[in-house]
Amino acid sequence: MAFNVQEFKKEYTKKFEELFAYGYDEGSTTERFIALGDLVRGLYTEEWKSTVEDYIADQSKQVYYFSMEFLPGRMLKSNLLNLGILDCVREGMQELGLDFDEVARGEVDPALGNGGLGRLASCFMDSIASTGLAGHGNGIRYRYGLFQQKFVNGYQIELPENWLRNRNVWEVRKENKAVIVRFGGQVNLAADEDGKMTVRYENTRNILAVPYDTAQVGYKNGVINNLRLWSAEIPYGEEANFSTVEERDDVMRITEVLYPDDSNYEGRLLRVKQEYFFSSAGIQSIIRYFKKLKLDWNQFPEKTAIHINDTHPTLAIPELMRILLDEEGLGWDQAWEITKKTISYTNHTILQEAMERWPEGMIAELLPRIYQIIAEINRRHIEKKIPIYGNELAYRTAIIDQGQIKMANLAIIGSHSVNGVAQLHTDILMAETLHDFFVMYPQKFNNKTNGITQRRWVQIANEALTDLLDDTIGAEWKKNPLEIRLLKAFREDEEVLEALETVKLKNKQRFADYVLKTMGIEIDPTAIFDVQIKRMHAYKRQLLNVMHILDRYLQLKDDPSLDFPKRVFIFGAKAAPSYYYAKEIIKLINAIADLINNDSTIGDKIKIVFVENYGVSLAELIIPAADISEQISLAGKEASGTSNMKLMSNGAITMATLDGANVEIRDNVGDENIFVFGLKSEEVQSYYRNGNYHAYDIYEKNPRVKRVLNMLVDGSIPGIEQEGRDIFDSLVKFNDEYFLLKDFDSYIAAQYSADRIYADRGKWNRMALMNIANSGPFSSDYTIRRYADEIWKIKPKS
Ligand SMILES: *Cc1c(COP(=O)(O)O)cnc(C)c1O
């Protein structure tokens, strides 16, 4: 985008005065941001419009990424970066006497997702536009995002996240593109004059779905796609058939708030309403677009790919069937072929507690026609599979089972592609979790290892590293992330290694300043920054990290002269408000932070920093400052992980179990550039199968484990009577579901070897360099290319 500093200054001054009727020098940070955001949006609207017009003119195939969550982070810098005017705007702001970074922090970080799944969707949106693909997001415009987390007396408190409080400069409300979504009522099948079946709905509750569109700007390529988020409103005119105030309030509640559960299934009515609401609205809007092309219905899959991110949007399948059958008058077989060819599905978990299933009665009442269609899909599936696979397998793969509708089964049967998100995860799906389906549809299964966009996670989050890379290997890596491998040539170059250490130190200082200012804790930037940032969940094993801290604390208490390098343990994690055990672990970490941070015999040998309200913006601050990346989930439980990729791209070294994408990180960096420990996935499976794991025996026989665990219940950590007991019991009495005790020794050993290597600065810096240099394959640009080639069959705009 052609634009110079002088023009920018003029435009910005004008824009600010136009909006606020006084000068920018009098404005608040929020106002300064709003003026800047508004100006930037104005700069790309022309290209946004022409991108859509080109897509229609070329009749190019469109992909729609349906996701219940998007977690984009602040958009100002990424839009400026992708437009190619970040430096120009930064300079212009400076010349106007404004602090650009401060103004950028005036943007509210929209937390419309829980964690990895939502963040993946946003990395994908960036990569789809940046690789020149015609692809759009479809989701929900939650009025309130993921709760704001505060700690009071060490306990998590949840506050509402009113992210729209200052107006959202990026979105455009498109009232003329609104659609009606119907709930409840009765279905009547009747023959019309020609004897054709017609479907009539009566007494439905009609809800207006209004889209809010946000541009998804591609990296310096002129492509601007669309993220469409739907808001529920009361319709006007005859569609407004609500009889009571409560019913009207009900409507508004549909898009009121994001469910704060991550990797956990919520069987509640409001949740399924949300799922149908945005699936139906999305499908209707896709169909309206397709009809503009005036093509035959059989060409629908040639022009449209619809991807469902986990099972949350699975009702898109029966909804597409409904429209093709009832509104467009297609026969079942034709509609079914079209649907399957159009839809593809990503599985994100093997955790049973995260598998969505809905009570049959609930769906029948809430979505009577959709229920009929699901029941018919199920009937035909069983009927067709019995002769080939026999009764047992046919019924085991049924969609409706014992009064429950299993969403994963519907997603697999109604799509042409099922992918896992890391090779190990996909292997487990095929061999275990979804093995029955793998037998039936081997060709549907494929792997697409997750990725991240280095534009946000390196270029924006880590400017110092970006400059060093540019100076060392040139700027080609920004267009082709694999080119970052050129850095390997400098692995023995002392100057580069030292420069890398200087970059890291600078980022650690930046984070230390934040910690001092917000928490009043002083941390030494030369200490090892040991980082675990992710949702709080038992399978992710933050508790194993805690056990290591307590063990280290005990060692130092025994012998204060031990020369461990200083370590700062950094945590960021929200727990689902209803996840009691996860909240107890939060309290425990805060309690040991209080204990150890204030123990003068420990000094700064150990510091613990648990930041409040972890989210994308904090991730951007913490990740560049990390030395160690804690990726310590029990092998076989984490589908992929993506913070592991962000951290390696910033030169942190992974402390890893062989789980999710850690396996692929190890394959890329080599054993000498990662710390691997713990049980393998097959070993875990074998323990589960044979029931021969006995945590109590380890507790009894391993004195270090015993001493650490006893701390939870002997009063040595103040303020955790209940939590300490519950956590102790989960490990010792209830047999330690996630094998922390079993992995303890090898984890401690791996941590000791990290200590030793950190003391050898040259060696550590080389490992960091090798991690950065091998991070290219984890760019979501490549992940998206594989989705495009192998699943969606779409090509970049030439
Ligand atoms: C990347 C990211 C995650 C995912 O972290 P995992 O360690 O892969 O679970 C969660 N939350 C935020 C804010 C992220 O940026």
Residues in helices, as a percent range: 40-55%
Quaternary structure classification: single chain
Mean pLDDT: 96
The count of helical stretches stands at 31
Question: If classified by CATH, what would the architecture of the largest domain be?
Answer: 3-Layer(aba) Sandwich
State the CATH class of the largest domain.
Alpha Beta
Q: List the ligand species.
A: pyridoxal-5'-phosphate
- What integer value in Å does the Rg equal? 27 Å
Specify the structural class.
alpha/beta
Distance between the termini: 19 Å
Largest sheet: 10 strands, mixed
Q: Could you say what the CATH topology of the largest domain is called?
A: Rossmann fold
Give the overall shape, derived from the CA principal axes: globular
Which range does the strand content fall in? 15-25%
Whole-number total of structural domains? 3
How many strands in all? 23
* Uncertain stretches of 5 or more adjacent residues: none
| CATH homology group of the largest domain | Glycogen Phosphorylase B
Pfam families: Phosphorylase (PF00343)
GO cellular component, one term: cytoplasm
Modified residues (N6-(pyridoxal phosphate)lysine): 646
GO molecular function, one term: glycogen phosphorylase activity
Describe the structure.
The chain is of the alpha/beta class. It has 3 domains: 1-56 and 75-93, no CATH class; 59-74 and 109-450 and 784-792, 3-Layer(aba) Sandwich (Rossmann fold), CATH 3.40.50; 507-759, Glycogen Phosphorylase B (Rossmann fold, 3-Layer(aba) Sandwich). The radius of gyration is 27 Å and the shape is globular. It binds pyridoxal-5'-phosphate. The site of pyridoxal-5'-phosphate (PLP) has 11 residues, from α6, α22 and α23. Residues 115-116, 119, 534, 615-616, 619, 641-643, 646 line the site of pyridoxal-5'-phosphate. Its EC number is 2.4.1.1. Its cofactor is pyridoxal 5'-phosphate. The modification N6-(pyridoxal phosphate)lysine is found at residue 646. This is Alpha-1,4 glucan phosphorylase.
